[in-house]
């Protein structure tokens, strides 16, 4: 009969959970804190442990690290009422078998426990690094990301991060780096932003005279990363010829500077990201063999619309980082939560930055939020080409005027709301109205 150690300072939870586990067929020993757990671990053998993170006489994470040091093959399931990203990453990096949040479904916890008593995981690194504190979220979707970061920080295998633009893929890469090797370089390069003819030189470096303008030898990003992390953003934009060269780096570490005859060896860990892989097991524009080399670990970052419950946390965090003492009204917060966020977290940050600059109110209301309307929200209906005229400016002005009129009609004359429907700033709306000779009352 598998023996389980339950460590929780809440007497009711400890006893009820212990009773249910015994009814399921486990032998259970209970501990109310770290000291009691330490004594039981020294005198008894266990097949798995359930440990609450917040204990009155100590830290559950410190107990986890002690267990991993003394009995590295004991699966430890961490339990907490707080969806804290730093603690989740630290727990998974320290070797936790799983991390669950209260209130949990008992059947789900029993399923995790059943796996734990069958699997003996290898020992993990016992000492977690300092967190960056840049990622925010407590939703189940983000909890999955925290776990993946923690696991990815225990080795140097390549990681591929996928997700829509603005979801925070580089922040995930930095979190992995900071928890793995924070004192080494983190070198980031956006492949989509580089001219095609310069990508190879940027990545691998070049020798003097390798091409016109190469007046001196230059180190590439691989060399600059040293033994740290090289982050290749928008990896799917890499042209086919360079994909082959990158594949070779991943396979044996070898590469050559442009114009060089000798071979260099890569020492950096490679983390890549792309917004162009929408399907879970799709390689998209990447060579299939390169994809599998890059995606030894794949982390999918969810769009903001799939973790709306994180919006209040993100709003609070962004306002704090902006150095603002302002708050957001309840109506404005509900509007932010309900919004579809095509630009994801990056767009939310920009909306708040704009509101803090444009509004002087201590409490930001819904009028202060510049949110783009969904595509197709305003229909020109009847904006036709002027009869007998093919003048482009004349017809664009006619269409623009009609769009503004429809937006003002739909918003009841509220120009701030009309600007949001049109997806432009209020100042630009006023400017266009003046250019078109539209009265303020229109």
Task: Give the overall silhouette.
Answer: flat
Sheet-strand content, in percent, reads 5-15%
Counting DSSP E segments of at least 2 residues, the number of strands comes to 18
Distance between the termini: 79 Å
Strand order of the largest sheet: 2-1-3-6-7
- Oligomer description: single chain
Largest sheet: 5 strands, parallel
Question: Structural class of the helices, strands and pairings?
Answer: alpha/beta
| Chain-averaged pLDDT | 84
Our count of helices gives: 17
Q: Mind telling me the C-alpha Rg?
A: 28 Å
- Residues in helices, as a percent range: 40-55%
The stretches of 5 or more residues where confidence is low (pLDDT under 50) are: 120-133, 375-383
Q: What report would you give on this structure?
A:
With 442 residues, this protein is of the alpha/beta class. It is built from 17 helices and 18 strands. The protein has helices spanning 11-24, 34-43, 60-70, 85-93, 106-118, 140-152, 169-180, 199-204, 221-225, 240-252, 288-294, 311-321, 330-338, 344-358, 392-410, 415-422, 426-435; strands at residues 3-7, 27-31, 48-52, 54-55, 58-59, 76-80, 98-101, 159-162, 186-190, 205-206, 218-219, 229-233, 254-255, 264-265, 269-274, 297-300, 327-328, 363-364.
